[in-house]
Amino acid sequence: MNVLDFVPMDTNTVPVIVKQPTLVSRKDCINLSTKISVGARDYQISHIVKGVENISSEIDSFFPISLYAAMKENLPLKIEGVLSRRLAENHKIIQLIVNSWWPTYRLIPVDYWALSKKPITENVKRSVGCFFTGGIDSFYSFLKRNSEINRIIICYGLDIRLDNHALREKVSTELKKIANHYNKSIIEVETDVRNFSDDYGDWGHQMHGPALAGIAMLLSKELHKVYIASSNPFGLLEPWGTHPLIDPFWSTDAIEIVHDGCEATRVQKAQFVSQDLFALNAIRVCHENRSNLYNCGICEKCVRSMVNLAITNTLQQCQAFDNPLEYWRIRRIKLDTSLRREWLTNLVAAKKANCDPALVDAIEDCVSGIYYMGIKGWPKRALNLLHKMTLASKTAHS
């Protein structure tokens, strides 16, 4: 039996059903929505797009997230529409990869009404886009491919909640400034896809990849290629929502999806981005946005990014963070296996760059987890507390 010949399910099993999408054009936006049924649960999912003349009305854009949901529930997937020929060929490979990473995502059959014909794209002028958050990863890919990319895609409802209007407005304003500076046009996508995806997987580990792939397919009337910035370099690759093994297999006859940037570590990306002073002061890395701050300077992501910049000796030029880098915060970061590997690369890079010994010491404490070692960590924690109190006293008297 061929490994790609999946075992069919009982015909009495109720499948995950994806309905034919509905497209509604309004004066300033286009809305594509569909209903996905998973057992007794019905979800209405909507993508609202601004900055384009047309979007694809094909069911393809809802296929990636529904595939993952069906795999998670171990149910067949029924597509009530015409599916891309390439997706019909490649979804089994995607399933095999996902199942090998996370065995609770089972191999499932996919049914569809028909396969799409190859789209006629001759004499149709389409652009190259990239998903853009303002982070070091997306800025790196954007700047590296600046001459090729002419449209940036900003998504609301993924890392920015749709009901956080103040933060959304702030982020939108800043990202539009970036687009204007580099003379790029913006495509804005508002989506409630997480109301569905969060029920069937972790956003980082599984679901953000298929969600981005679906949005890229949605834009295939305007774009022929979309870049997704890498999270990890080749040496630190692990199962993750976006990945160079999977992302290319989401490509259709209408659009090419490219995973970009694995050749560089985050420190190397920070070094590259910091060569552009505007970009250095425009980065947005914070996902916690405490008190609706743009870059709080307190969360792990902000601290890690500031450390990346400190290692490259460019942090002092960066004015993007609302709080300064404090070494005691580095020591108190609690790392999982994945983050420990990245912080180890930071430690190696900091030593190689002959950074401030106090910074190197703080990173070593972070990697060793000494703050969480119980009584063994008491002496070091006491010194850290004393240092923090001394800093607070100096600040109060300055």
Characterize the structure shown.
This protein is an alpha/beta fold. It folds into three domains: 16-115, no CATH class; 127-260, Rossmann fold (3-Layer(aba) Sandwich), CATH 3.40.50; 285-397, no CATH class. The chain is built from 13 helices and eleven strands. It has helices at 63-73, 85-101, 136-144, 165-181, 194-197, 203-218, 266-273, 277-280, 300-311, 327-331, 337-352, 357-368, 378-397; strands at 16-18, 22-25, 30-38, 41-50, 77-83, 110-115, 127-131, 151-156, 185-191, 223-229, 256-260. Strands 1, 2, 3, 4, 5, 6, 7, 8, 9, 10 and 11 form an eleven-stranded mixed β-sheet that branches. α2 (85-101) links the parallel β5 (77-83) and β6 (110-115). α1 runs antiparallel to α6 and α11 (337-352) packs antiparallel against α12 (357-368). The protein is globular and about 70 Å long. The chain starts with 15 loop residues before the first strand and ends with a helix.
Annotated CATH topology of the largest domain = Rossmann fold
User: What does the largest sheet look like?
Assistant: 11 strands, mixed
**Radius of gyration computed on alpha carbons:** 23 Å
Q: What average pLDDT do the residues reach? A: 92
Helix content: 25-40%
Counting structural domains, the number is 3
Low-confidence stretches: none
CATH architectural label of the largest domain? 3-Layer(aba) Sandwich
N- and C-termini, Cα separation: 75 Å
Q: Please give the number of β-strands.
A: 11
The helix/strand class is: alpha/beta
